[in-house]
Model the fold of this input.
Amino acid sequence: MDIWIAVIVVGAATMLFKAAGPVFLGRRPLPPRVRSVVDLLAPVMLTALVVTQTFGSGQGVTVDARVPGVLAGAVAVWRGVHLVPAMIIGATVTGVLRLLA
Done:
């Protein structure tokens, strides 16, 4: 029963925290310094997710077929390929390398 109380309290705190921005700021523009930080949050979070999923394995760091796959996808995006085909390229490279291993 104690775990459900903790889940409810954490859920309510999360909802209040997420609602605080729109409630307190309303339609007022963010200060330029805050806006520059907010603009960087999405790329930083995406990078952290990609790095964690590419190199993470349980409690350690692993270099396996995912690394060349991510690199192939990144090169494809850098060369101007759209995102979905670049993801397919990365997945294909990873799959082929796993088949060969």
